[in-house]
Amino acid sequence: MTILSTSTAATVTLRAHTVRTGLYIDGEWRSTPSTFPVVNPANGEILAEMADGGEADARSALEAAVAAQDDWRAWGPRARANLFHRAHALLMERAETIAEIMVLESGKPLAEARSEFQLSADFFLWYAEQIAHLHGTYASGSTGGYRVVATHQPVGPSLLITPWNFPLLMIARKAGAALAAGCTVITKSAKETPLTSAVFVEALHDAGFPPGVVNLIHTRSSARISSTIMADPRLRKVSFTGSTGVGSTLLEQAAKNITNASMELGGDGPFVVLEDADIDLAVGQAIICKFRNAGQACVAANRIIVHSSIAEEFTRKFVEATRALRVGDGFDAVDMGPVISSDQRDRLGRLVGDLVESGAELLVGGREIAGPGYFYEPTVLKITAPDPALANEELFAPVATIYTVDSTEEAIRFANDTGYGLAAYLFTEDISSAIVASERLEFGMVGINRGIMADPAAPFGGIKASGLGREGGHDGIYEFLEPKYLAITVDETTGTKR
Ligand code: NAD
């Protein structure tokens, strides 16, 4: 690794990939007087010193986005779609670079980083394909004498705030929708994973996105940056992915200027295994759903809820599969990498301690793995008497909790007994139970006999404390568009007069 510059934050070379470490504002990479370190969670080493954006940078990025907005929205759909296709081609050329950068700063295994890359590129392509297919409607006015033309317009300059757990997917999914809709954007990276967002934005720059259309800010003081931008009424949209607490703060800030807001927030996903489920399928999918990204996923199985008639077999097989997981550096042949930070690892120690103290039985794992790096054993706990204070906590960790129920009714009631409503999972061989039970599950998404759901063609998002709005599918682009109606007076006799 060579850090070419720290204070001017120019570039860093990592595994032969050169990555920009500055802010990207108005088409230029900029340095800042101070920097902050990015750490490789697999070994605790500093990977890079990133430019640390402040309030003046935030204002400058907003100015650039506002100045570029009128020209960008005027681009014809075909020209904008062509630009997206160029950017997509560049992303594909850089696939391995981007995947490796993700492994370095997030710790996820290379195979997971490659899958995340592919899904992100697919989302970007999905939005490119939507650009030229946005249609309006035309109708006669109800009382005659006018026509109703309804169309959509870009919301306007948008602030996109993303978390560290899916460093590429989160930015590609938001920026793809916003830019396709004709909005200019200021993206605010997570301080743990700014390098991935830098390589993504560099691909957009190289493809020819005009200055000011895309802006990128890194910072160690997110609250200061976002509150500065949110206070300005020229910002018309905030799209946030992260914790429910921060989402709620942003909604309060959005209220002041009635800023349009989309929120992808926390989850408490129930993974329900009914008595007629294919147990081996359920075990395999539960392992992916729980331990992918070391459990640090909003859609992870947070409560595994199993019918008592199959609980013994399910639990035995799930514990065996958990014990077989290989943990280590994401570049080695492993199934699971480190957690994101030493703070996160220490939190897990306390979490597992609290669960055991509340009566949970530890079946496997439950210890941190000696460093360097922030590793924790894949852990399974059996819960017989749920502690209300812990049962609905978002674990966000490689820690699985198994609960037992005696009926489908009890399973659904317990599944719904949460303030969150993002993703739920249901395993049954009976199609009728699957349909009826999934309709009763109060979640934005239900995986039936599968533990992974993200797809560009699907509307991703949650209800209740899990958020507002959807990303992807036909709905995603409309988060960045608003309806516009033209009432056009006509003389109904005109056509017959001449
Ligand atoms: P977080 O809320 O702490 O941080 C998310 C982003 O917000 C980061 O960029 C962070 O720098 C920024 N941020 C932090 N405090 C802020 C503030 N006061 N004002 C403005 N920005 C602020 O969340 P995290 O720990 O990075 O991510 C984990 C959470 O994200 C979990 O709750 C998880 O469920 C959720 N998540 C949800 C989805 C989804 O699609 N629903 C996807 C991934 C993660």
From TrEMBL:
It comes from the Bacteria. GO terms for molecular function: oxidoreductase activity. The keyword Translocase does not apply. PANTHER family: SUCCINATE-SEMIALDEHYDE DEHYDROGENASE, MITOCHONDRIAL (PTHR43353). InterPro entries: Ald_DH/histidinol_DH (IPR016161), Ald_DH_C (IPR016163), Ald_DH_CS_CYS (IPR016160), Ald_DH_N (IPR016162), Aldehyde_DH_dom (IPR015590), Aldehyde_DH_Superfamily (IPR050740). PROSITE patterns: ALDEHYDE_DEHYDR_CYS. SUPFAM superfamilies: ALDH-like. Keywords: Oxidoreductase. Its EC number is 1.2.1.-. It is an enzyme of class 1 (oxidoreductase). Pfam families: Aldedh (PF00171). Residues 32-485 form the Aldehyde dehydrogenase domain. This is NAD-dependent succinate-semialdehyde dehydrogenase. It comes from Lysinimonas soli.
